[in-house]
Design brief:
By secondary structure, the protein is mostly beta strands. The protein contains three helices and 17 strands. The longest helix is centred in the last third of the chain and has 10 residues.
Length: 260
């Protein structure tokens, strides 16, 4: 694995017992704010079950049947518990356990190229003001460079020792891929990557926010990125964060949603 990136895969310790909850290692929305109920109705929390462990990731509702997330959040997962319609993971409006997923066939865990996946929901969602999909981009040519954007997630906040129970968000700005390559190299940053930097250089996602949305608002919320990686120097080091560029995968998403 390249020493220039810190892969945003969450490692969680498992505490056995009916009332126990797993705790995460260093995931957080850095220097963010707490979301209000209904502010991000597309946001979900994914508690992913492996054979002997759990991991926490984010995701976005894109239809009545599908949640979009990162491939590294899905790899080797038995199933995931998806929490919908909440800003508090302890009190979701709705939960489902999903078993069917699709990982991009060209996903590369070494450099996180094509780090995108879908969860197929076991039953159709009924939308309301707290649970509804986010729009996908409709302009393949728009790089969104210099756009103001928002990243959100349930990761650990700065100074905390456990993952956040409440949804948090941070303001970021989209930067050019050329600038992002200077930090991570061309083997990591490709045409399928979109990068951001915090509004004050420090805000942004960290590993517990993997799979969560990078969105802009052009009359309506639009999903432009899926959280993928951050700098090995740390989430608050003033370095860019990397996301899957959703506009490059619209055809893949459409095809896969019809096959599962």
């Amino acid at each position: 694995m390249s020493s220039n990136i810190f892969v945003s895969l969450v490692i969680l310790s498992v505490i056995f017992g009916a009332q126990s909850l797993p705790t995460s290692i260093n995931p957080r929305i850095v220097h963010g704010s707490q979301a209000r109920l209904g502010q991000f109705p597309h946001q979900v929390a994914l508690l992913n079950r492996k054979m002997n462990s759990f991991s926490l990731c984010g995701g976005s509702i894109i239809s009545t049947d599908f949640v979009l997330t990162a491939a590294h959040c899905v790899r080797n997962i038995i199933h995931t518990t998806i929490s919908f319609g909440t800003i508090n993971r302890n009190s979701p409006m709705l939960q489902m356990i999903a078993h069917k997923h699709i990982i991009h066939e060209n996903y590369n865990p070494t450099n996180l190229n094509n780090d995108i996946a879908l969860w197929k929901l076991p039953q159709k969602l009924i939308f309301n003001e707290f649970i509804k999909p986010i729009s996908l981009p409709n302009d393949f040519s728009d790089t969104f460079e210099n756009s103001n954007a928002i990243v959100s997630g349930f990761g650990r906040t700065e100074g905390s020792t456990s993952s956040s129970q409440v949804l948090r968000y941070a303001f970021v700005k989209v930067i050019s891929n050329e600038d992002c390559v200077k930090n991570f190299g061309g083997h990591v940053v490709t045409a399928g990557t979109i990068c951001s930097i915090g509004a004050n250089s420090l805000e942004g996602p960290c590993n517990g926010d993997s799979g969560g949305p990078l969105m802009i608002n052009n009359k309506n919320d639009v999903l432009i990125g899926v959280a993928s990686f951050v700098s090995a120097q740390g989430c608050a080091a003033g370095r860019p964060a990397g996301f899957v560029r959703v506009s490059k995968y619209l055809e893949w998403i459409e095809i896969k949603m019809k096959k599962i």
